[in-house]
Specification:
This protein has an eight-stranded parallel beta sheet. 42% of the residues lie in helices and 18% in strands. By secondary structure, the protein is of the alpha/beta class. The chain has one domain (2-205): Alpha-Beta Barrel (TIM Barrel), CATH 3.20.20. It is globular and about 50 Å long.
Length: 218
């Protein structure tokens, strides 16, 4: 049962680490079960699916955009999104700022850093990171704020995963004070225990909580 899996995983993870329940392809009733237990942080990969669920679920849920950003659909989630995990371009930040201004909001975002060589894992280089944060256009924005970084490890041997998370932690430590960061988002169901060893503040868990994904039933 979802409730049993959630309580089991919650006991394993320190309370100061936030769990984002990855609800992609999960139905509304499954999300409601977690919500009734007091859990309010849920992550989605696609704007349309997030929108459909937002309309049907309590409005104090904190929605996290963890998938690739669809720039032409950002306008639909800016009114309620809690945190965008996957920003990779200055142009995306500019658009978020522009839309957020219309709604009188400031949107917090993470920059996704590429820490492995797998083609399925996107992200920016260290230099691209600095190019964004040091850009005067970004620094003048009032309605968007980069508050940390996110990274996804490879599906390879443990030593490689340790090296990737270790690298991201060192990079975070180097940038934390300068840019006022307070979020290091890394770790999923298969590797969250390693990510926690390296100081992750947010883990994104799907199958660990919901079980194997199935087609969404809204």
């Amino acid at each position: 049962m979802i409730e049993n899996r959630f309580f089991s995983i919650r006991r394993l993870i320190p309370k100061n680490i936030k769990i984002v329940a990855v609800s992609k392809n999960q139905n509304v009733s499954s999300i409601e079960k977690l919500y009734k237990l007091g859990h309010k942080d849920f992550g989605e990969n696609y704007v349309q699916e997030m929108m459909d669920k937002y309309k049907k679920l309590p409005k104090d849920i904190r929605w996290h955009m963890i998938g690739r950003i669809q720039s032409n659909k950002l306008k639909y989630i800016i009114p309620f999104i809690h945190l965008i995990h996957s920003v990779q371009k200055l142009e995306q930040i500019q658009l978020i700022n522009k839309i957020a201004l219309k709604y009188g909001r400031r949107i917090n975002c993470l920059l996704q850093i590429k820490i492995c060589n797998e083609k399925s894992k996107s992200g920016i280089t260290d230099q691209e990171f600095y190019d964004i944060l040091e850009n005067k256009t970004y620094q003048s924005m009032k309605n968007v704020k980069i508050v940390g970084i996110m990274g996804m490890a490879s599906f390879q041997e443990l030593t490689k995963i340790h090296n990737e998370f270790g690298y991201l932690r060192k990079f975070y430590d180097k940038c934390q004070k300068k840019y006022g960061f307070y979020i290091l988002s890394m770790g999923m169901s298969r590797d969250y225990n390693i990510a926690i060893q390296y100081g992750s503040t947010i883990v994104r868990l799907g199958t660990s909580i919901f079980g194997n994904r199935k087609k969404s039933i809204l």
